[in-house]
């Protein structure tokens, strides 16, 4: 069984008490590696190392252009190692190799983009209203950043935080999910091989109470970036507030995917399948509520069931597989429980509804599942399942579609399928979400901001705006001839 150690200050080392925990392969349902179980002492070491890296080490005195060049080399290294990272991700989280390979290759673009922005961070000269002063602003790195990542797309969601943090000049301590830590430990070695100074990025693996809590609470950590459930996000936000730390929280979703009668229905059905069954529904932007205009409801459901029923379930490493396993044993149980809940609430099962068999393993599979006759007030429509379970909800008018879409505590993403261009603009304006896709779904880019509203989070990742999350603004006043004046009066 493979063994992974902590990564602190460029060194791989065991945890303080030299204990380990096992990580499972979702396809086989069996453990494949041992991960060092970090403790509060390890967090203390990692934060101190990160603090030194950005205050007294070479990272602290490095020019922004030099930082940018390192990020460009990181991009090259990630492209060269994409297959290794993708295989590790698949083994640890069960997502399709075909998707993970493309995703791991795409990671490089974030480091190229933010590498290019590193030396574009500047302040401004401000012509203040008081004569005799030269005043300007500086944009400076916020400090040590704590990053807590989820199990569904560990490296992608780490990169959304890490690339702008490094471009800003911060140093980082990462706490990956205990379910999917291996790829992050492989990843950080690649960063340093590409020239990132040791200690700038450190990884402490383990569990929330042992590692996550001490990391968020540490007084030298000035910013926390988290992706995960809204319940955990609230806990992290409250803890960070006690230390007056800045936070960015990318949390859950119950995204509406809205199909109007004038849409290209085949394209809309393809988008609905992508939105909920890709990655086995284990994405924060999953289009888990399919709102269909009543006049085409039955036609859309028939097309949807016909397409989804052809999905090939099995080994995520196989190029023919379209739906892989659920990542964790607990999540597998939760998804099946929600199927029972939907049935008890009176929803009508149109497809799936149970454990997927015939895979030849003891892995954690769930059939692609479609429920019709769903009330938007039901638990299935209001709570995040995080699995391949779709709730189909009919509507009649545009206003009703908007009301149903916004009747949720979440607001991360939404899809609109229509050939009516003015309607597309109206819907994009009216829907309460951080992203609206029109005639497409589940598209992301390093160039466009991403984040949620309401219970889906705080802050934005990606795009030029993301770098602001990791910078502080300092104002500088220089007296170039102003009289000293009365020392007891505000100047």
TrEMBL record:
Q: Which InterPro entries match?
A: Ald_DH/histidinol_DH, Ald_DH_C, Ald_DH_CS_CYS, Ald_DH_CS_GLU, Ald_DH_N, Aldehyde_DH_dom
Residue ranges of every copy of the Aldehyde dehydrogenase domain listed in the record: 16-476
| Catalytic site | 250
Native organism is: Rhodococcus wratislaviensis NBRC 100605
Reading the lineage from the top rank, the first entry is: Bacteria
Recite the UniProt keywords alphabetically.
Answer: Oxidoreductase
Name of the protein described by the UniProt record: Putative aldehyde dehydrogenase
User: Is Coiled coil set as a keyword in this record?
Assistant: no
Protein family according to the UniProt entry: Belongs to the aldehyde dehydrogenase family.
Query: What GO molecular-function term can you cite, just one?
Result: oxidoreductase activity, acting on the aldehyde or oxo group of donors, NAD or NADP as acceptor
Sorted alphabetically, which PANTHER family does this protein's record hold?
Answer: ALDEHYDE DEHYDROGENASE-RELATED
């Amino acid at each position: 069984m493979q063994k992974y150690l902590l990564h602190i200050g460029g060194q791989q080392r065991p945890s303080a008490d030299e204990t380990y925990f096992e990580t499972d392969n979702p396809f086989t349902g069996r453990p494949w590696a041992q991960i060092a179980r970090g403790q509060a002492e390890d967090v203390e070491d990692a934060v101190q190392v990160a603090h030194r890296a950005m205050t007294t080490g070479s990272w602290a005195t490095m020019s922004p252009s030099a930082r940018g060049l390192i990020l460009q080399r990181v991009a090259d290294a990630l492209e060269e190692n994409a297959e290794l990272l993708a295989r590790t991700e698949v083994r640890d989280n069960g997502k399709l190799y075909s998707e993970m390979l493309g995703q791991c290759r795409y990671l490089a673009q974030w480091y190229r983009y933010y590498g290019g922005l590193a030396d574009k961070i500047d302040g401004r000269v401000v012509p203040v209203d008081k004569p005799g002063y030269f005043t300007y602003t500086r944009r400076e790195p916020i400090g040590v950043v704590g990053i807590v990542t989820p199990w569904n797309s560990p490296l992608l969601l780490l990169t959304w935080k890490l690339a702008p943090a490094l471009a800003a000049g911060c140093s980082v301590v990462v706490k990956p999910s205990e379910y999917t830590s291996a790829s992050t430990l492989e990843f950080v070695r690649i960063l340093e091989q590409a020239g990132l100074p040791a200690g700038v990025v450190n990884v402490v693996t383990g569990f929330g109470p042992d590692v996550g809590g001490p990391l968020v609470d540490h007084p030298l950590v000035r910013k926390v970036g988290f992706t995960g459930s809204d319940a955990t996000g609230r806990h992290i936000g409250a803890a960070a507030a006690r230390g007056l730390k800045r936070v960015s929280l990318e949390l859950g979703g119950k995204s509406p995917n809205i199909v109007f009668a004038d849409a290209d229905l085949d394209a809309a059905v393809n988008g609905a399948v992508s939105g909920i069954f890709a990655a086995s529904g284990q994405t924060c932007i999953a289009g888990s509520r399919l709102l269909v205009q009543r006049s085409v409801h039955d036609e859309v459901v028939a097309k949807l069931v016909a397409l989804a029923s052809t999905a090939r379930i099995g080994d995520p490493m196989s190029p023919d597989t379209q739906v892989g396993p659920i990542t964790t044993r607990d999540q597998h149980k939760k998804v099946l429980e929600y199927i029972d809940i939907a049935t008890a609430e009176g929803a009508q099962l149109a497809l799936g509804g149970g454990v997927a068999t015939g895979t030849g393993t003891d892995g954690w599979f769930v059939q692609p599942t479609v429920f019709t006759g769903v009330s938007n007030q039901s638990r299935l429509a209001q709570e995040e399942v995080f699995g391949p379970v779709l709730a189909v909800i009919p509507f009649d008018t545009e206003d009703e579609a908007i009301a149903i879409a916004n009747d949720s505590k979440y607001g991360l993403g939404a899809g609109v399928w229509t050939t009516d261009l003015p309607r597309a603009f109206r819907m994009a304006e009216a829907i309460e979400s951080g992203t609206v896709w029109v005639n497409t779904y589940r598209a992301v880019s390093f160039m466009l901001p991403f984040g949620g509203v309401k219970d889906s989070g705080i802050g934005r990742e990606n795009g030029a705006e993301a770098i602001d999350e990791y910078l502080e603004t300092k104002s500088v006043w220089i007296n170039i001839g102003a009289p000293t004046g009365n020392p007891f009066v505000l100047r």
